[in-house]
Amino acid sequence: MGTISTKGLRVGLGARGVIGAIGLGFICLFQPLFRDASSLLWAKVLLVLAALVYVVFSLIWDRKFLPLTNIQLIVAILLLSISIISGEILFLALGLFLHALWDLWHLATQKRYVPWWYAGACVYVDLAAVALILINVH
C-alpha cells in the first residue's frame, strides 16, 4: 500500500513535475506584466491564478471537489487582500507556501481531478516564489 500512496508524489515531483515547473517558470518570467519584479505584482497574480486553476480543474474533471477548491481560492484572495491592505508581503509568501502544501496533499492523496505533473510543477514554482519573496523582504 505504501507504493500506491507514493505514486502521485513520484509522478508529480519527478521528471514531469520538474519539466512542468521549468515551463511554467519561463512563462511567468517572460510576461510583460512581471517586468518590475520589485512590485511583487507577479506574486500577487501567481497566488490567485494558482488557486483559480484548481477551481477550473474541478469544474472540468470532477465537480465534487468544487467546494474545496472554492475554499482555497477564497483563502488565497483573503491573503492577497490582507497583503495589499497591510502592505506586508509575507502574506503572499504564506499564501504560496500554503498552496505548495495544497499541491503536495493532492499528490499524496492521488487526487485525479488535477494532473499530477501540474501539481508537482506547482510545488516547485510556489516554493521558488516564496524564496523570491523572502529575498525581497527588507
TrEMBL record:
Keywords: Membrane, Transmembrane, Transmembrane helix. The chain crosses the membrane at residues 12-34, 40-61, 73-102, 114-135. The keyword Transmembrane helix applies. This is Unannotated protein. It comes from freshwater metagenome.
